[in-house]
Amino acid sequence: MNRNRMRLICSRCSQSLPFRYQNMKCTCGGTLLVDYDVEQIASMLTKEALVQRYPSMWRYYELLPVSKPDCIVSLGEGWTPLLRMYESEKKLPIRQLWVKREEQNPTGSFKSRGFSAAVSLLKEAGVTKAAVPSNGNAAGALAAYAARAGIAAYAFIPRDCPPLIVQECTDYGAHTFLVDGLIHDAGAIIDAGKDEQGWVNVGTLREPGRVEGKKTMGLELAEQLGWKLPDVIIYPTGGGSGIIGMWKAFRELQALGWIDGPLPRFVCVQEEGCQPVVDGLAARAQVSAVSAEGACKPNPTGMRVPNPPDLELVLSTVEQSGGTAIALPAEQIASAAASLGALGISASPEGAATWAGLLAGCDSGWLRPTDSVVLFNTSHALKYATLAGLTQPRTIRSYADFRSL
Ligand SMILES: *Cc1c(COP(=O)(O)O)cnc(C)c1O
Prior knowledge:
Elements (H helix, E strand, L loop, with lengths): L6 E4 L5 E3 L13 E4 L2 H7 L2 H4 L31 E3 L1 H6 L4 E6 L9 H14 L4 E5 L3 H13 L2 E7 L4 H9 L3 E5 L3 H10 L1 H4 L2 E2 L7 H16 L7 E5 L4 H16 L8 E7 L4 H9 L26 H10 L3 E5 L1 H12 L7 H16 L7 E6 L21 H6 L1
Helix pairs in contact: 4-5, 4-9, 5-6, 9-10, 10-12, 11-12, 13-14
The chain binds pyridoxal-5'-phosphate.
């Protein structure tokens, strides 16, 4: 197919440019997103043809920005299970409940998707050195995919992030550094070294691949549900590239004529104390934000992004979807992780936050009895384990020991 017809469109001013790699900022300050020739794709690809394809996110190749199939860098990402939660449905005032098991991706989080696409583009462009500011999972994913592609990876991670995820980066051979600061401080280090180091910054919205890769979550949801989207998606939001990507997926599916009906309402969940999406939506609706007081220190998770690169785009997307955002206290997130664990699902704090958001949405009545709801379990619990926080079962030698407990 003719990839020269791929373009970039500014999400703010709608300016359209020929596709070029890197620098996704428009002159107006908006974010450039990849725009495909949907008519051409519709003439060559059918839903029926997809069924035959390999169960990976690359089954949607025509809707991904890599031109040369040889440059695809894959570790088996995507096509994660969508698990129906029958027992929970019976207990909650909603119609259907599903969990998208993103923790089953090759690097234990959905960041695999974005970096499979981003690193493929790096390979296609002949880039040999890439850097990322990250709360952990993006760094781990860059490290793995760069290792697969033979590209040097540089990871800059706030020093309080989960030690096992930092270890994962060094295991994959990435040059790994702890930063005394937050994710935007890590980003500033990469920007400062750009000319001298010649690395490409693959941070959120810096290049086209990550949004496009995360878009496949939306494509998969549609395909796995028989081309009918759920009413509500509950998503743990940091930089928001998943929200931007999934919305883009839904619009592309509409343009292809593959789905109809209303699109899902997004519910962004965040942790109290770092809640720019919650505060931003409140400010736009001219409600005074009920921001948690400064004493509250948010945990180092993928949701802790105080300055999202294009907050306006995230907010307008959530608004267009008819969605909302909610900030949850750390204790509710911790007990949600235990609830999911008791249902056999290993959930990271981010994934658990979607369960806490579900309960809150049921309590407040925002979720309706007719709603079908999808939760995104974006990573698994073990990546966040610290030796200090591990529960130790009792040690015994015999059944008699067991009886005497
Ligand atoms: C990065 C990350 C998020 C936030 O995703 P965005 O699409 O950047 O908002 C949520 N959960 C986990 C586990 C992450 O690693």
